[in-house]
Amino acid sequence: MAIPFSYNVRSLRERPVSTFATAFGMAMVVAVFIAMMALASGFQSALSETGSSENVLVLRKGADGELSSGVSRETTSSIAAMPFVATGADGRPMVSPEVYVVLSLPRTGFGVANVVARGVSPQAFTVRKNVKIVAGRAPEPGRREVVIGKTIVKRFSNCNVGDTIEFAGQPWAVVGHFSAGGSSFESEIWGENEQFMPAFRGEVFQSVTFRMRDAESFDAIKKSLDDDPRLQITAHRETDFYAKQSVMLASVLRALGIFVTAVMSIGAVFGAVNTMYATVASRAPEIAVLKTLGFRPGSVLTSFMIESVLLALVGGVLGCLIALPINGIVTSTTNWSTFSEVAFSFRVTPLILAAGMIFALLMGLIGGFFPARRAANQNVITALREG
Predict the structure, then answer these.
(1) Mind listing the pLDDT tens digit for each residue in 203-216?
(2) What residues are paired with 334 via a beta bridge?
(3) Is the dihedral of CA 138, 139, 140, 141 positive or negative?
(4) For strand 170-179 and strand 145-149, is the pairing parallel, antiparallel, or unpaired?
(5) pLDDT tens digit string along 121-169?
(6) What are the Cα distances from residue 63, in Å, to 60, 119, 243, 266?
(7) 34 pLDDT exceeds 60?
(8) What would you measure as the largest C-alpha separation in the chain, in angstroms?
């Protein structure tokens, strides 16, 4: 025979101070866990959502990133003439040869940080469908003008439309801001590639991005480009290339989050254990009466475990509510692949919230088991005497 669920609810309500203190301790652990997972998720999302599955990113053969790559004008022209390259409404190949450098710029307030500067062609805004000018305009050919990703506008000095930003020993007019669907492109500065080439790395592009006529034919396109001895290049599906850059740091952030919350959860579990042991001690006569009425030790153990789980559920819900406001808050970290700053938003997903609730339930189960077992094993006569 099971002890009624209402008995457990009433028991928790009769001890509001200890119930809240224990639940709040668990809530803080859950909130930290969710925050760390949201941090890793936001960073990984920013990179994995960079680019398009319809695009191919071409690097020099052997290069492990854009920073170490180099693609000549001749190779770029050969790629643009390939039959598998899509054409735009104007009939021109949808190809964007790009210059890629890392700059050190002053932050707003104090300090400096590395930022990616990408030299692009006008075609870049059609090759990458998610890139939109949200303020001002795009750079005009032949001018030293730049547009800045919206997530870093407030993080660095002189980034407002109409300002002048200096790098490579030259002034550059800020003529616009752009969005890119929350991807890592929003942490970059874009200007015309023909202006960036002489200012930085000479007559060579670091990468070439093009739209495929048929996205399903990527494997055949990759084989054609990789095997052509004249080109000496390697093709990557754009989304896969950027997603791989996020794997290492996202894994480190998740591991750090698990470690921090594991340490904190020890304290929360001890808090739950102390609360439940105190509950068992104060309710010794109740336990004796329950056993006298015919409730078996297993029912008593289950009842006290249910109380501990209820306590954990309250803590889990509170933790989720505490963590929810961080969703969308912009922060930044260093992309270890490029050693440049990537600004991104905390991303609290339903899956992360569910993981937080499961984590809370585990704390409740662990914290409640030993006190519940003690309650179940109490001798009726001894319990009545203690009362």
Answers:
(1) 899 999 999 999 99
(2) 341
(3) negative
(4) parallel
(5) 989 999 988 899 999 999 999 999 999 999 999 889 999 999 999 998 8
(6) 6, 19, 17, 46
(7) yes
(8) 95
- pLDDT band at residue 284 under the 50/70/90 scheme: low
Q: How many CB atoms lie within 10 A of CB 214?
A: 11
CB 51, CB 183: distance < 8 Å: yes
* Spatial distance between the Cα atoms of 372 and 380, rounded to a whole number of angstroms: 15
Token pair 């709040």 is found at 24
Token digits of residue 342 = 């990537």
Residues pairing with 341 in the sheet: 334
State whether the Cα torsion 372-373-375-376 is positive or negative.
Answer: positive
Helices (H) and strands (E) in the chain, counts: 11, 12
The closest of 216, 179, 238 to 51, measured between CA atoms, is: 238
**Calpha distance 78→235 (Å, rounded):** 14
Q: Are strands 188-192 and 112-120 parallel, antiparallel or unpaired?
A: parallel
Rg of the chain (C-alpha set):
30
Give the C-alpha separation, 317 to 338, whole Å: 39
- Closest to 356 in 3D by CA, of 310, 305, 306, 322: 322
Could you give the angle at which helices 5-13 and 16-48 cross, rounded to 10 degrees? Answer: 100
What's the pTM value of the predicted model, to 2 decimals?
0.76
Q: Which residue has the tokens 């991104």?
A: 344
Helix (H) / strand (E) containing 188 = strand 188-192
Integer Cα distance of 188 and 227 in angstroms: 32
How much is the average pLDDT of 193-198?
92
For residue 307, give both structure tokens: 């109380």
Would you state the torsion angle of the CA atoms of residues 158, 159, 163, 169, taken in this order, to the nearest 10 degrees? Answer: 60
CB 85 within 8 A of CB 215: no
The secondary structure of residue 163, as a DSSP letter, is -
Nearest to 42 by CA among 246, 189, 192: 246
Which of 328-351 are b and which e, b meaning 16 or more Cβ less than 10 Å from the residue's Cβ? Answer: eeeebbebebbebbbbbbbbbeee
- DSSP type of residue 3: P
319 closest CA partner among 273, 264, 254: 264
Q: Tell me which H or E stretch contains 340.
A: strand 340-345
Q: Name the burial class of residue 168, with classes exposed (0-12), middle (13-18) and buried (19+) by CB atoms within 10 angstroms of its CB.
A: middle
